[in-house]
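Service request form, structural biology core

Requester: graduate student, group of Dr. S.
Request type: structure prediction, single chain
Budget code: on file
Notes: please return the result as structure tokens.

Sequence provided:
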Amino acid sequence: MEQTFQSAYQEEERRLNATIAEIDRQLKRLRAIPVYTGHDFTEQVLEAGREEKRQSLAKSLAAPYFGRLDFQENNDTEPKPLYIGKIGVDHGEVGDQPMVIDWRAPIASVFYSFTGGDEPAAYEAPEGTIEGLVYLKRNLVIRKQILERVSDTYDRNSDQPAVSDEFLVYRLGENKDNKLRDIVSTIQAEQDKIIRAARNTALIIQGVAGSGKTTVALHRLAYLLYQYKEQVAAEKMIIFAPNLMFLDYISDVLPELGVGDIQQSTFADWAMRLLGIDLPLADPSETLAYWFESADGMPEVTDEVPGRFKGSIRFMEMIRACIEAMEDASVPEADFMPWEGAVLSRATILHWFNDEYKPYPLAKRKERVMARIHRWVEMELKKSPSAAALKERKKKASQREKSYASKWPKYEPVVLYKQMFKALKLQAGWPEELLAGIPDGVMKSTQKDLKKDVLREEDLPALLYIHYLLNDITGEQRFDHIVIDEAQDFSPFQVAVLDLFVKGHSFTILGDLSQGIHAYRGVHGWDEMRSWFKPEDTAYFALTRSYRSTMEIIEFANRILEQGVNSELLAVPVFRSGNPVRLIAYGSGGGRLNDLRAGLQKLSSGEYRTVAVLTRTLKDAKELHERLKPDLPELHLIDGGDQAYEGGLSVLPVYLSKGLEFDAVILADADSERYGASSWDAKLLYVGCTRALHELWLMHGGPLPDYLQNMHEDIAVTGW
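Core staff response, request fulfilled:
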């Protein structure tokens, strides 16, 4: 066995050295060609191709590939060794088999989908289905041109059992830094199906904590750009993430995959830019404080709270009805008279508005009608009997055109939205009964905000929809593909509006209902989103395998879901064992503060790079940070206003930790006073527990919540 391994290692080392030498040769040849800076278009195109090649070869030089697949197609006499890398590399000679195959190429899908056995494997190529036999599947770790690890996960000619998880467990055991990494070398079969799914489909992905949802979505973008390179463009794709810190956290993945120029934004920032609104957006920390910082616990969530109502499809339909009613009453009641004796009948103006310019959106229709009226006035002015009459009529016509235009509704989203909530006077002809469906609490709170010229994030879908109904969408504003991360915190209205801005319902919508801690504005079930799309335009995937945390942490978190949330969305852990989860009562180190300090010092003194203390509220986090920082000067406070995640030691409220990962986590004050009996509280605790990769401690100074007290001793260990 040892001899076989040594032989394989030596073979791969020789192959690696030859590959690096060839890449280096090609790179030197390209760098020797002077960079073209002239104005000849053909030469510019050729230079762009050379520069793209230079960059891809330079990226490949340090680690050209990560996998080998020996595959024999049905019509071949022997298997061919295929090396899979992040970026494809051709041989120097035209017509040769690629030296490295891009992981997104059709044949590379076999590397991810094949899990062992003697049965044939197949992949879909442009010429049809290709079948064959896999003889060898080998994982390779190469860093800085050095071959560090060779791991065979399948060998048809060996009598040794397959060890498909061995390499995965090895990679998962590595410690975290402050950035999300690509998973191109460890993509699993169920993830690969999502990555390679058809483009014009709204994919909804329910993925348990640690299932790689975000990373899969980013790899899907890279795949779509490769597979549909003539139909999609990176700059016409966008990722919507919950906050700027999360965007920074994922920022390295796409460049590592050789993909740039994809837009990344929060929904609020994108909406405000598109609308061009100068009004201030209320600080989201106000909303978070209301729902998470209350001393009386979390307020009750119903469909009548502002976030749920304003995010509903029924509110969307109400807006459409209001705009349609306004459209019907848009043209002022009276005829237009620029001066005495000249009359343009309302019937004619209605004909222009309702018939001739019907295909245009409302704002453009009004603009066209007013321009038509102006041209009519100019024609009538030519009939003036004298220069004096012409001058007088011009003056009157100008005044009356302005007066007539002012009688039309103002086709501005904020103005109309204010009228809906009675923060401005309603236009005549807009039936108030249309607004009767707005709950009293929503009406009052929104009216109060709008009278102060303050908008909230929950108002943005409505404003975008009004903008669309008034102006339609330009080609520059339409996306080729949209990724929505943490989608359980999005509303159906948000998704419905975004569907107007994307071609062919091309979405990747990913989230976890078990982490739906923002239930006051997000969905409570995926059917709320799926119902917007036709069945043939959507697909649903469930990722149940968790790759983030140890078995002990996942099993502990699952029990919280079972007993505290009554959820069946449980994670299946990868076989990676670690230390037991610890339930620690304060007092072992001299009280709460000393115990938390000692815990942080102990966990950060070893190999862990990222350690976090998660508190129930921001107030608790600020207090702990202030008191612990003198002894731990490297401790960061994450308060929601952060632009980037710094790694190292952190303290933050649990509700701001969603989407992040840490080597070790201490959940401070995990008692029934901080985490009540509601399923919402249990979800918060679940989110906190599933941030930990290797080590999880829950520290408490009072009785535990019921769903923790019932934990079995083989899952949780009390004490240091």
